[in-house]
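Issue: ligand-bound run for 5'-O-[(L-methionyl)-sulphamoyl]adenosine - logging full I/O for the record.

Environment: standard queue, default settings, no custom constraints.

Inputs:
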Amino acid sequence: MADKKSFYITTPIYYPSNRLHVGNSYTTVAADAMARFKRLTGYRVWFLTGTDEHGQKIQRQAEAAGKPTAEFVDEIVDWIKELWEELDICYDDFIRTSEPRHTEKVARMFTRFYEQGDIYKGKYEGWYCTPCEAYWTERQMDEGNCPDCGRKVELIDEEAYFFRMSRYAQALIDHIEANPEFILPPSRKNEMINNFLKPGLEDLCVSRTSFDWGIPVPFDPDHVIYVWLDALSNYITALGYGEEGSLHEVFWPADVQLIGKDILRFHTIYWPIFLMALGEPLPKTVFGHGWLMLEEGKMSKSKGNAIDPRVLAERYSSDALRYFLLREIPFGQDGIFSLESFITRINNDLANDLGNLVSRTLTMAERYFDGVLPEPTAYDERADEDLRSTALQIPDAVESEMEQMKISDALTEIWLLVRSSNKYIDDNMPWNLAKDPEKRDRLGTVIYNLIESIRFVAVIIQPFIPRTPDSIWEQIGIKDDPELQSWASLGKWGAMKPGTTVKRGDDLFPRLNMQAEIREMRGDPPVEETNVPEKEEEQEGLINLEYFQKVDLRVAKVISAESVPKSDKLLKIEVNVGEGKNRQVVAGIAKHYKPEELVDQSVLFVANLKPAKLRGVLSQGMILAATDQDGKLALSTVDQDLPPGSRVS
Ligand code: MSP
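Outputs:
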């Protein structure tokens, strides 16, 4: 343990002013994946999260709720802790800024700053944004509103203590310039230097007198300490700052402080300056990630169930939600959350790619080898090398992406292996090998390679979707073998032991019906009664003619087709359905047809399907296709030339 390299990662501490939405969960899920990854790859990790409980905003919210502030905060903190449990957040410590272990240290720091002349008493006359807990000058404001959140600011006029930021400004600029890793992604660095540091730092007001929900200034208790000075200190108070033999000695400076881009200024200007004043080293990296947005704009709790992370995790599983959050927001940029994109990810990446790989492979292992892992005796260089070398290079590729905090790219790398494995099934067609007894050894090798590849995938996905590997260990018969679940076991190919009993389990991620989910989650009324088959008919699995005729089936002629950006599954297709005006549909057939192969084909088409958006692209209908159990897909067409729009019945 002692010689392990240490890794300290933090999240922002959340305001317990409201329940968190799915966007807030992003930071913590990302930090958790990072912490788990470092643990898996052999580091001694400390992962801190918590709640930022003081300040005017919280006090007002509690008043509005008609509750004593401490009680109001306790309830939300409990809710947040339950959320983290549901999302499998494996933090090592949860700091609440109301705890004495924090407040006492912050009070001592404030006194030290005062005694060393960093803080002086004065009067603040100026603007304050309570939702952001931020001071603004006239020049910084945006037409009289807060430049960060756009809301109204308040004029305050009170006696206050000030921190001499200018004392440390040059040292901070020098540090930022000399340490390109300090602010990431790099684009955010210039914003800080040019917008805030270069124009000259004004002294920062660090106490308030017009409310009392905060840490009192020890030598002047009419003042409470400014909530950001209080909150930022949590990253060291939680480590036992100032105590002999504390975790602070092991873990400070932090390796990564993960935050949303909106609070970068506090973390890359105020925080380092406070640390410099304490004579402490600065964190190695402050990483400002992008935001998860809704199609219609910013998230807010009032936008409903669809963004309540606990509702989403309960309905779709914590792994599905974690996967979506980590995969959907590319490195440092903003991403969009919509139920459509969430369900598309579940269906495509988790159910089709990963889930099918596991279920197809285990079904074949049971069918052809009675669930006993065969010996790989018939290696075929040409057919097997690709899969083997992809598997062996993925761990390094993932590690390199994670070093740069490119979590989404790390998942893309892992999915290369998932997809290569599915392709390996399609290329080697085990069902054909099974027909020829002479090819039994080869069939055994193909199945062995697939299970070994699944083991690689399961080891690497542990930090991202930690529940799924447990089910895979069980299915491939290594649930009691920690060695085979370890990162170190990925150094060579072929660690699975022939003779191991394997057994197909439940599907990892059942496929979801997009329309039904959208209806349910948006609270739309259920489908009209007449659309639903009679009870007895439903039991027999039959529908009557009238019911069938509700589906408007037509012949459609493909006019043009193109790929949908950032999707390897979807094609955007324009079809003529004999209406005078073409329709646009999105079909998940890109893996089976090239766009140019589709043009001029006459296909069967559902013309009265409710329009939906896939990957933000409007789809007005559905092209019919048949799929066999191995995933081979063929479009359904007509065997004579019929004009577009012809009815199918
Ligand atoms: N209490 C301060 C942080 C103090 S850290 C010493 C705070 N809290 S917060 O609850 O308002 O926000 C916490 C984090 O959630 C921030 O990093 C913020 O960027 C992040 N997010 C809020 N909405 C978000 C999205 N829609 N998407 C991604 N992250 C989002 O600020």
